[in-house]
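Feature request, filed as a ticket because there's no other form

It would be nice if the structure record came with a short human-readable summary line next to the tokens. Right now we just get the raw output. Example of a typical job, pasted below so the devs can see what we mean:
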Amino acid sequence: MKIHNIEGWSNARLRLEVKEGGKFIVYQYVISILIMTFKRPTDVYFIKKDENRFVPAIMPSLLTLIFGWWGIPWGPIYSIGALATNLMGGHDLTNEIMTATNHEEISEEVIKEMVQEQEKKDRFCGSCGKEIFSDWKFCKNCGIPLLSKH
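Raw output as currently delivered:
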């Protein structure tokens, strides 16, 4: 995975941009082929305070709209979730990435682990650990209210 829009920046500039309101955002896209459905994250995008978070979401959302629906049963479910995530501005990984920069250089492996951890948080109940879906307000297994992810 790559971080877009920070090419050639020093750590000092990166910290300044984040302090001024910049965010590290990852979006989702879904591709389905009959009974197989693949839900994947995009690369990470750095969005400055005054930039629109929805512009980088256009391509993964279009990809999902065209190719995401066709897998039964998960295609429509994952497509709706990915589109909702993208329309709400994607997943914010700023805290995780900035924490990682305090201890080490940002490598592709570190970013990949952060994205996977965020996806896991979004798919499983924090209380019982069972799989949950984006349209649920309560965990069907333990009954705990599910917090909004954005």
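Something like this underneath would help us a lot:
The mean pLDDT is 84.
Residues 3-107 form one domain.
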